[in-house]
Amino acid sequence: MTSPERSEPPTYSLWQLVVYFLRLGTLGFGGPVALAGYMHRDLVERRAWIAEGDYKEGLALAQLAPGPLAAQLAIYLGYVHYRVVGATLIGLAFVLPSFLMVLALGWAYVRFGGLTWMQSVFYGVGAAVIGIIAISAYKLTTKSVGKDKLLWAIYLTLAAVTIVTESEIAWLFLAAGVLAWFWRAPPRWLRQSGANALAAAQLPAAGGLASMLDWPLLTQIGLFFAKAGAFVFGSGLAIVPFLYGGVVTEHHWLNEKQFVDAVAVAMITPGPVVITVGFIGYLVAGLPGACVAALATFLPCYLFTVLPAPYFKKYGKLPAILAFVDGVTAAAIGAITGAVFVLARRSIVDVPTALLALATIALLLRFRKLPEPVLIAGAALIGLAIYPVLRA
User: Fold this and answer.
1) How far apart (Å, rounded) are the C-alpha atoms in residues 375 and 131?
2) What is the pTM for the complete model shown?
3) Rounded distance between C-alpha atoms, residue 298 and residue 277, angstroms
């Protein structure tokens, strides 16, 4: 396997990069776009460890391939100078801090979830999360869909399907990508003859931990979360409707309230939003479930970054690939938008929660750099204050 050319020899050690990503995974709030921005600011502008061209290629690959954007970009930056070893260590360093945090929160949720103070916190936080996701969907829509009529058609179709079915249909993502590819950059054989139907292949994976475990359940968790990891494009929020359809509707592992609480946990912890899978896995099957869910989700992300990296310089800018990515991205954003409505029906249960969600939206529109954890903390305090009164 050939490797891409290195623009310059590294001016930093692998250990220095690992320490940086440990710190970013521990303190980096704000979602995938913010995390990608921190990496550019720190590694390209301030420290000059990574060349601008290498960063842009990593960002393009992260947007192209399935997987959470921030995690894939981190893995690619580890690959730039230190190849597979660097990619592996950086991926672990970036994800591990937030994974340990959601494990602790999962333990507290299981142990104290029935207490009034825990219910009060998630009463307020759940409503604020709806506002945050709504703003994220709005930003992603305006940035990625724009005025393109085809992308709008894909976007609206996926939003409607998500609202009606309350789940995410994975093959529609691939179908959207193929449609955009055939429409914008049709292959030669298509111009010469009629179009043929294509079938989408799924990428399952499974995992396990130690002995004396519920292997059927863990295998089921591994298969489901591997499929989820293989269909998360761009923003980590794209996994929300997919997880809802499987975790709540199909497998009935969690109820609606527990699922919204799991999304809230992802919002109040640093690092990639997708780390919510660790919390969900913990609620379903304890520590083994959390480990299997996280490993199964991030393994496709890792492979989809490391395996194509050597060839991305050559093929990444082909019109057909770019068109396919645009179609899949529009589908993912449409699913996120639909998920806002699905989750809102469970979290907006009365006037105070409706006001909390609207206030969150208004604050994010008014103060564009307002950190989301600040909103979550404020919503938690409000929940602590009013939930006991309302339920008295």
Assistant:
1) 10
2) 0.69
3) 10
